[in-house]
Amino acid sequence: MWKYFWCILFSLSNCHTAFPQQSDFHSALRLGQLKTAVNVATTELSSQPENSSAAFRLGAAQFLQTIEQLGQSQYRYGLLGDRRRSLPFIRLPIPENDTPEKLSYEKARDIFQQALNGFNQAEQTLARIKAPAAELILTPAAVHLDLNANSRPEHNESLLEILNAVMQAPAAESLAPADLTIRFDDADVLWLRGYCHVMAALAEIILAQDWKDQFERTAHLFYPSVETPWAFLQNEGPGPLGGFNGQNLLDLIALIHTTRWDVRDPDGMLRALAHLETLPALSRQSWKLINAESDNDREWIPGPTQQTALNSNLRVTPQMQTQWFTMLDEIELILQGKLLIPFWRGIEGGFSPFTDDWPATPDLAINARRIFPPPQPFALLLWIQGTSMQPWLEKGPQIDPQKWNSIVTAFQGQFLLFAFWFN
Question: Up-side HSE of residue 142: CA atoms within 13 Å toward CB?
Answer without folding.
Answer: 11
